[in-house]
Every structure is written in C-alpha cells, then in structure tokens.
C-alpha cells in the first residue's frame, strides 16, 4: 500500500491522503499512523482518496473509524456525518463494504474532488 | 468428481494477498459469479486475519484453505492450529451506532456470515479448528 499526501485549499485547508493498493490487516496501521501524524501536525480536515484501493477489509474500516474519531473530537453532534473526514471515489467493491458496515451514514462519499474539497 | 483447489500458507498477515489471490483464481476456475466471489474473498480474508491476529497468538503456524464446488454451491474449509475457538455464537456489530460510540472491531465475523449461507466452526483434537463456509447458487449463469 502507498499513501500520497496532497494539500488543497478550498473554503478550508484540506489534506488529501491518496491510498493505492490493498488496505487490509497488514497495512491498515500505516494509514492510521500517517493520519495520526498529520493530525498531530495540525491537520483538521482529511479527504481519503480511495480510488486506488484494490481491496479493503474490515481492518481498513477500523483505521477509517479511528481516524474519524481522532478528527471529530470538536464535533458535538456525532449522529450526523463527519465534518472533518470524507471519502473520495471508492470502487464499487469498496463502497459495498462501507455500506454493509454502516459507515456511509456517518461519512460523506464524493465522486468529484473539487466538490469534496469545497464541502469542508 | 467434484472440482476443488487447496492452499497452505504460513500464518502471517503479509500472506493475506496470497490468500485473496487463491480465492479469486480458484473461484474463477470453479465458475463462481464475480459478485459472489468478491464477497467470499472478503469472508476468507476476515477469517484468516482473525486466526493470525487472535488464534495463533503471534506464532506463524500453517493455515490450510480449500474450495470445492458441489453442484451449484461452493464449500470453503479453513483449518488452523490455534487453541479451540467457537465462533458459532456471535452478536451483530452495532451498525447504526454513531462511530464515536461504536466499539472498534467485531466486524469480521459479521462479514463472514453475510457472505455465507452456512457457517460452522468445529474443533477436533489433534487436527485443530475448522471453519466451514457454504454459499449456494454461486455458479455463473451461461
């Protein structure tokens, strides 16, 4: 798995983590660690670009779950979708597991990068 | 005679990709429809991950996986050398609970059940744990 980090300025500053490869139990810690480093250095909005993810299991969702909770500490209403973590372009296969495990209710899924950035 | 495939891997997380490739290639050879094969690949990945992370306790013991086509169904058997594990009773994860109140993990068994029509865990002394998954109506329609 590889993670490319891009910064974009919309109405807010957004860090894009572009993931490629398999997001499974052997790699999910790398994503969680990278996101944790970014948050510790001041990142408050993350867009996860999942277009290059060829496989995602529950370990990948576990990492996304942890990142959501790291970013949402100042969000008072947790029954709505996260204002600080959003997803971009998951494949049909990856979208299915996100929905099967009920994460789509709490995370926005975008198919257009500009729209995603401006939604923060 | 039934068509089957089998693989034995060393129980390391780095070998999960090899496990998924085995399921995909064997499933295609057995004529399993691609959408069902995707679900089965996920189920096997989750099962093997659980064995490596929770069953073997850091040891890299072998894990055997076999796939066999029986009529219009596929049976997948996963055998490991971990201490006895009974996963027959499981509770569904809290899928409608907001993420800040939801416990981490516990999703693997749910995905295994979602992908399978039958799920059975058993243990035989000297042979270890066996997880048997059956999925019906898997063969592609021509």
Give a structural overview:
The complex is a heterodimer of chains A (120) and B (142). In chain A, helix 1 (28-40) packs parallel to helix 2. Chain A has helices at residues 28-40, 58-71, 92-100, 113-118; strands spanning 2-9, 13-23, 46-56, 85-88, 109-110. Chain A is globular. Chain A is 35% helix and 30% strand. Chain A has a single domain (2-118), classed as Transcription Regulator spoIIAA. Chain A has 4 helices and 5 strands. In chain A, strand 1 and strand 2 form a beta hairpin. By secondary structure, chain A is α/β, with parallel strands linked by helices. By secondary structure, chain B is α+β, with helices and mostly antiparallel strands. In chain B, strand 2 (62-70) and strand 3 form a beta hairpin. Chain B is 31% helix and 28% strand. In chain B, strands 1-2-3-5-4 form a 5-stranded antiparallel β-sheet. The longest helix of chain B has 22 residues, at 34-55. The chains are: A alpha/beta (120), B alpha+beta (142). The interface between A and B is medium-sized, with 27 and 28 residues.
